[in-house]
Specification:
The chain has about 240 residues and is mostly helical. It has three domains: about 80 residues; about 80 residues; about 50 residues, no CATH class. The chain has eleven helices and no strands. Helix 4 packs antiparallel against helix 6, helix 6 crosses helix 7 and helix 8 packs parallel to helix 10.
């Protein structure tokens, strides 16, 4: 049996890594020397922070045998527990990456070349990874549904159409199904974006006036409404200043 893929096992991958590690251990039953060396083989396949976490474990603590020279599981337990503790220390850092990915970063939008099916699956995974890494975090069903709809790149009329088809229920399952049915070929469809915070996507700080949060965006396409990339968007006040 081959060694499992032993790249750094993140918190959402650790349980699978652990199961595969034990599969390797028990798959070597009857081959005492090989089985007892399994923790060392597993460690040798690790990299980056996972490797640093276990590199100082001595071979004699990993290769463990009983009085009859038969392999024992103490070495495996030590390796896996050390990895688990190291991953736990990294969880806060990972959560800081997953929160924006699920709720705020540009990746929340459907990509121009992304099918509706691929977009929905990706967003489901974003929320799942966040909740698995942060057990106390729970994104409600209706909020997931709303975010899926508004960041799906559909124009306002299309969003209303999807919502109407599910009786105006913000149900993630129903809305995702409706989006798949009505827009199966979204990969060739332009992505409509809107700056919901009212801040320029070029990194300009928003005005201190809270009213700017509710300014209606203007299009730079000469009057005809087109989909636009984030970097093409400017606040109304900024455009007015440029025109003058």
């Amino acid at each position: 049996m081959e060694s499992p893929n032993t790249q750094v096992p993140h918190s959402d991958q650790f349980e699978e890594y652990k199961e595969r590690a034990w599969d390797l251990w028990y798959g070597r039953a009857g081959q005492d020397a090989l089985q007892s060396a399994t923790p060392v083989h597993l460690r040798a396949g690790l990299s980056n922070s996972a490797w640093e976490a276990v590199r100082k474990l001595e071979h004699k603590r990993l290769i463990t045998k009983d009085g009859d020279g038969k392999p024992t599981t103490e070495g495996m337990d030590l390796l896996l527990e050390t990895l688990k503790l190291a991953i736990a220390d990294e969880v806060p850092v990972k959560i800081n990456e997953l929160f924006p990915q699920a709720c705020y970063s540009p990746s929340v939008w459907r990509r121009p070349a992304e099918s509706m099916q691929a977009y929905i699956v990706r967003r489901e995974q974003d929320f799942r990874k966040l909740e698995e890494s942060s057990p106390g975090t729970k994104v409600s069903e209706n909020l997931r549904a709303m975010m899926l709809l508004i960041f799906g790149g559909l124009d306002p009329k299309e969003q209303v159409s999807v919502l109407s088809s599910v009786n105006n229920e913000y149900d993630f399952g129903k809305i995702s199904h409706a989006m798949r049915i009505h827009f199966p070929n979204a990969a060739g469809k332009v992505v409509q974006r809107k700056d919901y915070l009212g801040a320029s996507a070029r990194g300009h700080a928003p005005s201190s006036s809270s009213s700017l949060l509710f300014r209606k965006p203007r299009w730079k396409s000469g009057g005809k409404q087109h989909a636009f990339a984030a970097e093409d968007y400017e606040m109304e006040d900024e455009e007015t200043a440029e025109d003058t």
